[in-house]
Amino acid sequence: MSVTSGSVTAASETHRVGRIQSFAGRRRFEGWLMVAPAIVVFLALGIFPLIYSLVISFQRRDLMRANTNEWVGFANYSKALRDDRVWNALQNTIGLTVFGIAIEFVLGLGLALILVDELRGKRFIIPILMLPVMMVPVIVALIWRMLWDNQYGAINQILSWIAGHDVNIVWLLTDKNRSLVAILVTQVWQWMPFMFLIMLAGLAGISPDLYEAAALDGASWWHTFRDITLPGLANVIAVAILFRAMDAFKIFDLIFMMTKGQPGTSTETVSWYIYDRGRQALEMGYAAALSFLFLIFVTIVATIYISRFLRGHEA
Amino acid sequence: MSTLAQPIGMNADALRQQRAHRRRKRLTRALRYAVVLIALVWVLFPIYWIVSTSFKLPAELLRNPPVWIPQEPSTAHYRTIMEEKGRVALKNSLVIGVSATALSIVIGSLAAYSLARFRTGGRHLAFWILSQRMMPPIVLVIPFFLLLTELGKRVEQLGVDRYPPLIAIYTMANLPFVIWMMRSYFAGVPAELEESALVDGSTRWGVLWRITLPLTMPGLIATATFAFIFSWTEFLFAVSFTRTESVTIPVVIAGLTGAQGSNWGQGAALACIATAPVFVLGLLVQRHFVRGLTLGAVRG
How many Cα atoms sit within 13 Å of A246 on the Cβ side? Predict the structure, then answer.
């Protein structure tokens, strides 16, 4: 009796295991089938062009001259490392990214701290503050180029009122630092709300119990901020800076619209310089090599950042 | 209750303290409003500037010091730009944006469902997809330009200045975003709900179509809106792969406003036409904004 029942159980057990396995197998097959179209798109439009570009980067491909496709080894790469314009562009890109994000972060967090508690009209204030994020960067650049204009712009006019005498500063195209400041402010205008919105969401996620406990302990505003708010926001800050930096590092539209790298080549950024070499000077091999160096640089920075600040955090 | 009870047994000292406390609170609130007001002016002034510019005729447009409120507002710029260039740009941006959004939503949602429900490829696949978004787009400009020039010689529709290449590129560029967003929305649908329907004999596709998709519809709409806004605002690929026929709005605006003062009015008019619908769309899905900005990492 017991023997038969045991063998019956064993039989049904193997049957069930088999069914579960085939079920899991089908699920896995279905799963990959659903991902397949996306992977095909990435391979065809992301990975393949990348490999193609790697090949080109070892060639001299000057579309202005005869299309020779001559193999030159690492010549494009060694030229890039000795090119002053590359280093200047990298410096500008890093500077605009670091200063831009620092200002956006401080202003955005400050504004979020002010607006996290109830305030009349908050429902209408927040949507207005998010408008710049939705705008076309080219349009933002157009607006600010009109505002920065030394003759017809409002900025010099407002500065004149403040100074009490006529201010005529040529912001764009004549001086490197003034141009970069103009670009920086323009960028901050569009992206400060990005930091603000994310910080606001992060602040709303911190448990009010913590603040109550701190208030009972008689903690000062600064101590509460340092010991509760900042640690509570740490992950959100790390994510916000990562996404913002990924975007800021690509900066191209503002340069195209506001300075085109001028005066001279002093306000070029990496994306602008590569575009200038490739799409305008048609030095495809060199531009491809520059893109690869840029990609390697971005990958290294991103990897270090993610492993340092986002470890254990399921993005 | 406590506020009512307190004043009865209160001595002068406590009363003074309470008054000081209340005064400080009122001061803080006034300060908060002041900062908010500055922020609102800071955000709205440039937007006001382009709207007012679009109504200024050259006489007011190019005046020093500038005119803040147009004295003779005119819709001339709107009419001029919409006669040709603006209309073409709007049509191109719309066709390219809608096509790329539809494609990326279909392809991306399927992949996202698979990642969320079957954990296909584990964390590695999800992060590989995310890493596609981290790639600076300029890296793809050079190879795409050469490939499109070659392809265009064989199949005209696949060359530079045609719709299909831009639609394909925007679809690819949108995919990581769509997949990560939709993955986070799909993960919010309890698996038990689907399993009970599966036990009742529905197929996987039936479950996805009739149960999961309706539940994630708000998220899907928000994701589609953001994908559309991306295509609508993208400039680098558009300026690299178009010339005259498939130029999008940002390219036309950039082309119009090359030098100081040149066609600022027309550029501003087109900018206003291009921005208004995006504001409306964006405000409709504002609840999803924070999620959208961080690819689902931070929930608003």
Answer: 21
What pTM does this model have? 0.87
- Do the beta carbons of residue A23 and residue B204 sit within 8 Å? no
Cα diameter, chain A: 108
Give B50's contacts in chain A (Cβ within 8 Å). Answer: 139, 142-143, 146
Q: What is the pLDDT of residues B201-260, one digit of tens each?
A: 778 888 888 888 899 999 999 999 999 999 999 999 999 999 888 899 999 999 887 766
Least confident of A146-155, A306-315, B139-148, B253-262: A306-315
| HSE-CB for A124 with a 13 A CA cutoff | 4
* CA-based radius of gyration for chain A: 28
pLDDT at A93 over 70: yes
CATH superfamily of the domain spanning A75-314: MetI-like (1.10.3720.10)
Residues 272-301 of A with CB under 8 A from B: 274-275, 278-279, 284, 287-288, 291-292, 294-295, 298-299
Find the closest chain A residue to B290 by CA distance.
A198
Going from N- to C-terminal start, the domains of chain A cover: 1-56, 75-314
A213, B268 in Cβ contact below 8 A? Answer: no
Residue to test with chain A: of B64, B68, B124, B139, most A Cβ within 10 A: B139
Quick one: pLDDT band at residue A1, thresholds 50, 70, 90? very low
